[in-house]
Design a protein that fits this description.
Order of helices and strands of chain B: EEEEEEEEEEE
Distance between the termini of chain B: 41 Å
Structural class of chain A: mainly beta
Radius of gyration of chain B: 13 Å
Strand content of chain B: over 45%
Largest sheet of chain A: 7 strands, mixed
Order of helices and strands of chain A: EEEEEEEEEEE
Oligomer: heterodimer
Structural class of chain B: mainly beta
Helix content of chain A: under 10%
Strand content of chain A: over 45%
Shape of chain B: globular
Number of helices of chain B: 0
Chain lengths: 113, 110
């Protein structure tokens, strides 16, 4: 079955550590996105990528980094520079030229301990 | 930049009709989408409008007015399972940047 998979579902990070969230899709989508969602809030765009080896900053990119070495994969690293990383992180993908629908993974809940 | 405004919360009774509004500002408009998200879950796509008018999909309909930078989601025959957050979102036509509004929490009461 085609879909988009995020792992892990829950992640705990100590202060000062970098952590990487995985996002893989087998939908053959060109575009991929990372969003952050805080409790009771909307989705804020961190980074997005339209094609392999290319990505752009979204509205809240500071303290985060991404790579897009393969079409299927768009990992997000939450660095120690992100001062308040505890949140729900959602990855999504969409077709590049038929931009009518984005498909979401089930999310990763990151907690700083 | 892009911004979308929608009410933070709406309450309605089972069987009723509710309308969730969305106004947007964007540099280059491609289309307006709506997503549903249950607590703790992933957003799921509901509808998309690229042209003015009403799109109907079962109990849900979505409307767009490009001249007014405005759209709405209409939910009919409300059911308890419709209790969720609803987000409007826009793609800009410069690329695949998808921006979401702050979400409207819908509570359906018996």
């Amino acid at each position: 079955d085609g879909g988009i998979t995020q792992s892990p579902k829950y992640l705990f990070r100590k202060e000062g550590q970098n952590v990487t969230l995985s996002c893989e899709q087998n939908l053959n989508h060109d575009a991929m996105y990372w969003y952050r969602q805080d409790p009771g809030q909307g989705l804020r765009l961190i980074y997005y990528s339209q094609i392999v080896n290319d990505f752009q900053k979204g509205d809240i990119a500071e303290g985060y980094s991404v790579s897009r070495e393969k079409k299927e994969s768009f990992p997000l690293t939450v660095t120690s520079a992100q001062k308040n990383p505890t949140a729900f992180y959602l990855c999504a993908s969409s077709l590049r030229h038929l931009n009518t629908e984005a498909f979401f993974g089930q999310g990763t809940r990151l907690t700083v301990v | 930049g892009q911004s979308l405004e929608q009410p933070s919360e709406v309450t309605a009774v089972e069987g009723a009709i509710v309308q969730i509004n969305c106004t947007y500002q964007t540099s280059g408009f491609y289309g307006l989408s709506w997503y549903q998200q249950h607590d703790g879950g992933a957003p799921t796509f509901l509808s998309y409008n690229a042209l003015d008018g009403l799109e109907e999909t079962g109990r849900f309909s979505s409307f767009l007015s490009r001249s007014d930078s405005y759209g709405y989601l209409l939910l009919q025959e409300l059911q308890m399972k419709d209790s969720a957050s609803y987000f409007c979102a826009v793609f800009n036509n410069a690329g695949n940047m998808l921006t979401f509004g702050g979400g409207t929490r819908l509570m359906v009461k018996p």
